[in-house]
Amino acid sequence: MNKKPLHWMKYSGLGIQMVVTILICLYIGEWIGKKFNYQILGTLIGVFFGLFASLYGLIKEINN
Q: Counting beta carbons within 10 angstroms of the beta carbon of residue 11, is it exposed (0 to 12), middle (13 to 18) or buried (19 or more)?
């Protein structure tokens, strides 16, 4: 018997994946900002890059 997973189970981990992506990019942005003495700018770039990367992953997963 071939049981298909429920539809909601396919997307259950996307929220956690988005948060982890944003936090990793935040950490990398802070590290780069401290290294080049632009901590606020590095943090902002890291957060926005993480946000766009996580939204891209979300849209890509929903379209599949």
A: exposed
